[in-house]
Amino acid sequence: MDKVFKWDIFEIALSGNTAGNPFTDYTIRGVFKGEQEEIETEGFYDGDGIYKVRFMPSYEGVYRYFITGNYSDAGTVTGEFEVFPAKSGNHGPVKVSNTYHFTYADSTPYYSVGTTCYVWELQSDDRIKETLESLSESGFNKIRFCIFPKHYDYNFNEPRSYPYEGTPMDNSVLTEDNFWGYTDNPKENNEWDFTRFNPGHFRHIENCIKKLGDIGIEADLIIMHPYDRWGFSKMSAYEDDLYINYIVARFAAYHNVWWSLANEYDILDKTIDDWERYAQIICTKDPYGHLRSIHNCIPFYDYTRPWVTHCSIQRQDIYKTAECTNEWRGKYKKPVVIDEMAYEGDIPHFWGNITAEEMVRRFWECAMRGGYPGHGETYMNKDNVLWWSHGGKFHGESWKRVKFLHKIMCETPGLGLTSDAKMDYMGVTAVPQDDKERENKTYFIYYYSFMQPSCKIFHIDDETEYEAEVIDTWNMTVEKAGTFKGKFKINLPGRPYMAVRLKKRRNYQ
Amino acid sequence: MDKVFKWDIFEIALSGNTAGNPFTDYTIRGVFKGEQEEIETEGFYDGDGIYKVRFMPSYEGVYRYFITGNYSDAGTVTGEFEVFPAKSGNHGPVKVSNTYHFTYADSTPYYSVGTTCYVWELQSDDRIKETLESLSESGFNKIRFCIFPKHYDYNFNEPRSYPYEGTPMDNSVLTEDNFWGYTDNPKENNEWDFTRFNPGHFRHIENCIKKLGDIGIEADLIIMHPYDRWGFSKMSAYEDDLYINYIVARFAAYHNVWWSLANEYDILDKTIDDWERYAQIICTKDPYGHLRSIHNCIPFYDYTRPWVTHCSIQRQDIYKTAECTNEWRGKYKKPVVIDEMAYEGDIPHFWGNITAEEMVRRFWECAMRGGYPGHGETYMNKDNVLWWSHGGKFHGESWKRVKFLHKIMCETPGLGLTSDAKMDYMGVTAVPQDDKERENKTYFIYYYSFMQPSCKIFHIDDETEYEAEVIDTWNMTVEKAGTFKGKFKINLPGRPYMAVRLKKRRNYQ
What we know:
The structure is a homodimer. Chain A is an alpha/beta fold. Chain A is built from eleven helices and 30 strands. Chain A folds into three domains: 83 residues, Immunoglobulins (Immunoglobulin-like), CATH 2.60.40.10; 317 residues, Glycosidases (TIM Barrel); 88 residues, Immunoglobulin-like (Sandwich). Chain A has an eight-stranded parallel β-sheet. In chain A, β27 and β28 form a beta hairpin. The first copy, chain A, is globular, with a radius of gyration of 24 Å. The termini of chain A are far apart. At the A-B interface, β26 of A face β26 of B.
């Protein structure tokens, strides 16, 4: 009997019709029955006469499958396989938990600390390898990237492959001054058959998704984006829907997939009805309910829409971003992921030149309010390889501090932090989201951001003993400051980016 | 004939009644007639049987005066004096000009860069001398301070004098834990006659106002404040009005006086009607129309009130302050003075521990939007002498950068800066307030704040030649970058706190 691990992929590949257009003319679907679930999923044409159906089991034990469709005249194909416990490190897909937070399917808390590399996977094999090595070394556990290639400053090169059959425009006509001119009428310059996918393009992306999964990183897939000279952002509704069906059929079985309907949805030439229709397709066709959101340029999408599982936010103000986490949590009652709080770097673009210190400060401001921050790096360099677009190596300093923050986040009692609202006007006091932990006053992190107090006075109550620690968020140290009760003073070094953590002393008997 | 310089004080001192309460039972007033003005002003009792009337002439030439009142039975006292041109450095009182800005009476632009030392003038002679020396060395041209003594952290000592006759509470009863307990019922602990002023207290303050005037510094007098164990903040309406009349009669003739009705008006036990009444007294009794405002703790006073000449703002948000200058200018259509944007220092109080870099950044953010920033310094030190409260020496780094900013502000063509609103979402682009200068695109300062671009691209138009300068606001350097036309690039050092200034090249023939 075939074997598969829980939250891995069981795939059936079958030969089928090649006449006409196999991407649109034929169907294939599977039903997967185990003792604890029965999942129906659509398959896809993978080229060369091969149709595939994929399934991600969420339970152990024996499953039976039934493959049907007009892809061939084989009739219903059936079989069995056994699902074994998940491989070490695979905690299953991430779900929303405790309203504002996330856990993996196996209930392990997932504290998201993301980065953005828009088209890292469309670079050369060497670059991709380098990016994966950088990611492994970092603490990031989510990466945002695009399925379609990207046409934008520092990135006017060609992708390694295209999603469709056809011919891209001749990029030798691009000059320093005219490259934006080619974004308006892509149909004049490119020739694609938007009904015929290039399976190799998607197969390669799957391979990248898998490699991310292997190192514990969620793949936040950007389905549409406006930075486009090829016309992929200007397809018809029929073509868009075809595309979304195709990627859901291909990618949904990967445990680490998140769906991001768009980067900067508001500068794409689509209507709210379009976005809602895409969301409907995903909700209907993804049997695993992977996380879904949509990312703004300026106005937020209506994150109260039921299909939106979490906010995926780009800052709306260059000065105040992560500090708005409370407000957004309050408004949307969903996890707040701030995927773009500006990027560490030194490019001229106003969104791409904050310091490492400021980036780390924003990470902490966001995380201490129970939000989930995102990183990006945009340092100029002679090869025009910018992490934010291409991946490669890190050149900054903020990425090094992310693993440390993530460790602190993981030490939260219960699941997730929130901030003590009554203290908001003076900064952020992080407390556990868990009601009981909060009532019992077990855990406090006072984050001092750009402020540089030389001491702080605390007075939680008169009875409880607290173990105090001084955290240097920049230098990544945690120093014990002693055990205290009642009103007490903690000395601090008088420099920015410090925090004090108080943990209720447990009485071990 | 007596002589006086324009915008200096002509004072008449006359003996009068001492029976009863000279502060309340008698009046003295003067009328001063020159060719270009006729001013009526109230005098005051200065103790020891002496009544005084003061006058500040705004024009040169011969004046005649007429002193009347029931202070004695001398009848109308008259005389003449001649007003000579103002002494060098005395530009007269500051007025609002060009809606959002200030000039001195002689039309010299006044670009306000202030500091706060709440009770510097109530310290020892040595400390006062030290403060004046520090101020002389600095670039500050305004200082906020209180007429009443101040009871607040780091400042529980006694003032050098009290404003009233009577006996203050015994401060030996103050301990580290109880000092706030003495603010609630001051009448139980202090004995004052709120109808009998201590002229020495006010005479000393006048001396300090004069010394500030001599070094070109405006005295932004805080008339009321809540930090009080003596009861000066809890007088009756009658007593308040008596006090306001008294200080207006004494201080209004000093050219460098500004009236600040309160520090943190909203935490004083007064009503809006009270504030409006005080304002009415000042408007009626101050014949020179010195600048008037009122400073908030949390909610702003209604700065649209006609008597308010300018906003005097304390930040309402710890993260975003100076960046709101545009919004406040737009809302109130008056000069925006941000007197408290947090203080450079390292005390535990959340409002008193920003870095020097952050303070200077806020100064520039405010100034580049055509607002007027204020400084304060709160470094812990073993003598508990904090600039913000006592004056003394500076211990920080931000004050050193104020003179440099002020020099840049003074180089604005026309009067005052504003920001280019259409660029707001990406930071601040300072342009002249003057319509003609703006239409002619003569002058631009692009301030990059905490951002660290390694270059910037400019393209004002295709024809105009610009002289470009790179300004390092922290290191206080201005470096010529060359002359450019059309689209051009300016290289920057890739660190924060930089600015680029473009000046239209003048065609000298």
